[in-house]
Amino acid sequence: KKLALPYIIFFDADQITELEFMGKPLNGWLLWRARNLLRENLTAAQRIICVSEPAKNHLMMKWDMPADKIVVLPNAVDIHRFQPDPNLRAETRASLKLTTEPLLVFVGSFYQWHDIVTLLNSFALVLKSNSQARLVLVGDGTEREKMMQYAKDLGVEHATQFTGHVPHAEVSQFVNAADIAAVPVPVMKQTMWLSPMKLFEYMASGKAVVASSMGQIANVVKDNENGLLVPAGDADAMANAINRLIADPELLARLGRQARETAVKNHSWEQYFSQLETVFESVKNTSMSRSR
């Protein structure tokens, strides 16, 4: 304010609401202070950049921010790092001791908003009709050990691998190895502002995606065009979608190809930066006009 500089804030998530969702809400003085700090920053900003339409709606409904102040820029992906690579696919599958087995991959943190329970339940159903299918879960988090035990309880431990933490530079290896990639999201009381990085990385890698039809995911994935959508929390529907892809190699290839096209056209870092520069220029020009 003292320097009269343009101010833009990036709103990736409402952490106050996320803590409530996780059962660890802020209370008392700390909650009052957090709310006031966020509201003051949102009000002071000339533009608020958020990752999804649900995030924009949240800012308007809960924080009373005007619509014309908010810009929606979904997460983006490095389409050069994440791209189909047959050699990398073969190397990674060999390291996983896989040959032609259908491989389902999940990448992400093991927290409540990633519905690993439904994913494991659906995979148990898949194994009944496709016993050679395999599942690799890449990542770490507070729920990982619990999910490893759940896989054992389901009797799918023999066909499931949990990698633990993997540096982001190595994630593309596992995605390339996959035939199908999963984005499981649980049923939620409110629509969250999720803009899963995994979704764009899967798509850029040319993978057939099976995703829960929630929030921004349903805007990015067009069912039967560049992926398959299933109801959130529905293990039967997810298993049916996975089995459908295993049984239909042409559909698998087409969805993967069109997913790559969508990622390149709409979700590359290059197009993201171009839009971001437009926002910055707009705010700068507005600030200069006001200062004059």
Description:
The structure is a single chain. This protein is an alpha/beta fold and about 290 residues long. It has twelve helices and nine strands. The protein has helices at about 15-20, 30-45, 55-65, 85-95, 115-130, 145-155, 170-175, 195-205, 215-220, 235-245, 250-265, 270-290, and strands spanning about 10, 45-50, 70, 105, 135-140, 160-165, 180-185, 210, 230. The strands form two sheets. It has a six-stranded parallel β-sheet with strand order 6-5-4-7-8-9, with helices on both faces. Helix 9 (about 215-220) links the parallel strand 8 (about 210) and strand 9 (about 230). The longest helix is centred in the last third of the chain and has 23 residues, at about 270-290. The protein starts with 7 loop residues before the first strand and ends with a helix. The mean pLDDT is about 90.
Can you list the strand order of the major beta sheet?
6-5-4-7-8-9
Helix content: 40-55%
Strand content: 5-15%
Structural class: alpha/beta
User: In DSSP terms, counting alpha (H) and pi (I) runs of 4 or more, how many helices?
Assistant: 12
Gyration radius (Cα, Å) is 21 Å
Largest sheet report: 6 strands, parallel
Tell the overall outline. globular
* Termini Cα gap: 16 Å
Unreliable stretches (pLDDT < 50, length at least 5) are none
What are the main properties of this structure?
single chain, 292 residues, alpha/beta, six-stranded parallel β-sheet, three-stranded parallel β-sheet, 9 strands, 13% strand, globular
